[in-house]
Amino acid sequence: MEVIRTQTQVGIVGAGPAGLVLAHLLHALGISCVVLEARDRSYVEGRVRAGVLEQGTVDILNELGLGDRMRREGLTHHGVEIGFNGRRHHVDFEKLVGKTVTVYGQHEVVKDLIAGAHARHIPILFDVENVSLHDIDGSAPSIRYTHHGLSHELSCDFIGGCDGFHGVSRPSIPEGVLKIYERVYPFSWLGILAEAPPSQDELVYMHSDRGFALFSMRSPTVTRLYLQCANETDIADWPDERVWAELLLRLQCEDGWAPHVGQIIQKSVTPMRSFVTEPMQYGRLFLAGDAAHIVPPTGAKGMNLAISDVKVLSEGLSLYYREGAMRGLDRYSSLCLRRVWKAQRFSWWMTSMLHRMPDANDFDHRRQLAELDYVTSSEAGARTIAENYVGLPIEGVD
Fold first, then answer.
1. How many domains does the chain have?
2. Based on CB atoms within 10 Å of each CB, which residue in 149, 249, 378, 397 is the most buried?
3. Given CA atoms 301, 303, 309, 312 in this order, what sign does their dihedral have?
4. Contact 128/36 with Cβ under 8 angstroms?
5. Residue 14 sits in which domain range?
6. Rounded to two decimals, what is the model's pTM?
7. For the chain, how big is the Rg over CA atoms in Å?
8. What is the pLDDT of residues 278-305, one digit of tens each?
9. C-alpha to C-alpha distance for 252 and 394, rounded to whole angstroms
10. Beta bridge partners of residue 224, listed in sequence order
11. 141 given a catalytic annotation
């Protein structure tokens, strides 16, 4: 079969937030790229994932000229509420650290990124099959794939592996190169999207004797809620009435606050895990986002880490194409991993503090309550939450 050969400077595997933001960053720098995505456009734009954007992520999207709809429709949050013993306590980010976060769904970010890419003529190929990476340890790597029944080979200088945990990028690195760090938590999240207007303006993280619950939102008309459940949970055992009954029990407060109840339009169970790959690069292949790390969603870090990864990568590539210098790219993994591990620490800490652990005894539970009391009554404790939640600085390559 004839092979269609093309060339670009950076080949990007995956059209999630990492791959798409990387494409826009490179376009702004005058660096050519091609994005290859295994799924179709409607699937990519419909994946409901994270929804909390750090201040740094918001700044990057605005600087790229992609923030118009986010500014119109996103919900700016000046803090969060942490609840325990039936009472909620406000952590004021803006007062504590002078920053905010924005609630704007990941699928909405992806829609904006794809629309912007088409407007800027950044090539994205959807429905790509049989993707394989070649010569990633040499100076001229390539990506082979089929598209609409035709075989292609894309030659490039570098490859951005942005294709998620189950993608082809990480497995393309030879055995023995990577060290994997992983923790699987003994519970999952049952999450719902409901057609119900948010009953208050900020997220509520609630510790209860029945297990953790989270009140969040996606828009002025859609609420997003989660509750801690067993890993072996079958979604069929949780009809809508049972979900709402459990959420209302866990989120009930002394002041009478409760989420608005509405029709559930999506329901799923998400396992909780932490995962880190070291290093995040091999030869001319650079892993970013879920291809390199996964965090439990308690700290709202997944999409934000993906975007900070490619921000660092774009700076390294810019330095290479400006000066022919590899020093920025050589530092990519170490710079990203410093931030990744701090985000892992924060996500683990929030998860451990707020959830009921299956093997916890009475001492563990009282210690948990004492920790929650400390972080909500001490300015120093609250500042730790605020500083991490709004996003730690992204280190530059120089």
1. 1
2. 397
3. negative
4. yes
5. 3-76+101-181+273-356
6. 0.95
7. 22
8. 999 999 999 999 999 999 999 999 999 9
9. 38
10. 193, 216
11. no
